[in-house]
Design goal:
Two copies of one chain form a homodimer. Chain A is an all-alpha fold. Chain A folds into two domains: 1-45, Homeodomain-like (Arc Repressor Mutant, subunit A); 47-206, Orthogonal Bundle (Tetracycline Repressor, domain 2), CATH 1.10.357. Helix content of chain A is 77%, strand content 0%. Chain A has helices spanning 3-19, 26-32, 37-43, 47-68, 75-92, 94-98, 100-106, 108-134, 146-169, 174-186, 194-206. In chain A, helix 8 (108-134) crosses helix 9 and helix 9 runs antiparallel to helix 10 (174-186). The first copy, chain A, is elongated. The interface between A and B is large, with 40 and 40 residues. The structure holds a DNA duplex.
DNA sequence: AATTATTTAGTACATTTGTACTAATTTATA
DNA sequence: TATAAATTAGTACAAATGTACTAAATAATT
């Protein structure tokens, strides 16, 4: 990728994150870079292409972060690390989650990719739950679809905590990131066995 | 309120729900009513006013629905009914929740009202949790801020389940409403005591 | 050095949409 | 009935924004 293209992406990310996707026009991006709109368009034929590119940057950032949080001592620790990693990546590319719905509505390619991604994540999640149960860290299902619904809950909370924070507090800063990370972590707690709960409390203390 | 004003609101709600807020212009509303835009503007000086009015219709619809679900046998039943009532009202005014963030960002008066509303809801929620605990239907907190976080979870799930459904399935119909209602109901289950769990299962059977 | 390809700038356009404004028409009132 | 108030229609405008297009400038290549 050309140096200019990288500069455009970097600046776009900053502006998008700061001002929100729909308050940033091509003109404001090119202004911030002392560059003509024509030039911008030479590198990205469509505005959509910039957003598209940034989305896929996020995806690979998450992939890397998840890999790095793989070498943990326990399965539960892995859950803590993975969750925190995802939340942090979301925050880095927060413009996407400040109005997740608009992004997904306006960018079909992104939406399609996301839908596929979620199918995979759901499989991974099920496998993960299974391994927690086998290790006697998590109890079995007591309700129909209980852990399917748990997955849905994780998904909604992950994708929309930032929107919620913005509406409620009209900002998202590091403090909020911590708060919502804890909230998401705690989501799994009441499903844990006594052993699991002890392990949870140990990990929590170590953070 | 004049007959015409009511007609405009009714038609706007239909179009907003069907096509989404930002795919409905004043022109399309007036077309659907065989009415001039000028006339529309006579009744609602700003487009915002229509949305404003519909939002407050929703608010009072919810108030009424909550009152009606007050006369239940048990506290847990009240939870089931109230939750379902809210979800259904949200569905009636789904245009607001199909892109909740945009609505809240673009309508300051609505956002301010919502913020206040949530402060009250949080107090009500805390009181409700307290009464469940006193009745030995719910266990005490085991984690710091556990039930504050539980409230946040309820809030995010309520406000954004529809957005999530739209992104994932590209539609929201009655089937999805049922599914997400169950998901939200189940959120409280793992915090219940044995007595509480039994009561939950009884109520669930009766639905 | 000459030619070709790449990059940059600048202008213009099309479109959408909320809304302001004026005039006509209908309804209410005295 | 005459006058005032209300409702309705129609036109025009302003502002924003993505993008198409052309020409100039710079870099690369032969």
């Amino acid at each position: 990728m050309s140096r200019t293209k990288e500069k455009i992406l970097k600046q776009s990310l900053i502006l998008f994150n700061d001002q929100g996707l729909d308050h940033v026009s091509l003109r404001s991006i090119s202004n911030a870079l002392n560059m003509s709109v024509g030039n911008l368009q030479y590198h990205f034929k469509k505005r959509e292409d910039i957003i598209h590119e940034l989305y896929f940057q996020l995806v690979s950032t998450i992939d890397i972060a998840i890999e790095n949080s793989g070498n943990t001592q326990s399965k539960l620790e892995e859950f803590f690390e993975t969750t925190a990693a995802i939340v942090n990546c979301f925050y880095e590319y927060r413009f996407i989650f400040q109005d997740f719905t608009s992004v997904m509505n306006q960018h079909e390619a992104i939406r399609t990719h996301y839908q596929e991604l979620m199918k995979n994540r759901k499989l991974q999640f099920s496998a993960f739950i299974g391994s927690l149960i086998k290790r006697n860290l998590m109890r079995k299902e007591l309700l129909p679809n209980e852990y399917d619904h748990l997955f849905v809950r994780f998904q909604i909370l992950s994708d929309f905590w930032m929107s919620s924070s913005l509406i409620e507090l009209e900002k998202v800063a590091q403090k909020e990131v911590s708060m919502y990370t804890e909230m998401i972590h705690q989501t799994i707690f009441p499903y844990l066995t006594e052993t699991g709960k002890e392990a949870y409390l140990m990990i929590q203390k170590s953070i």
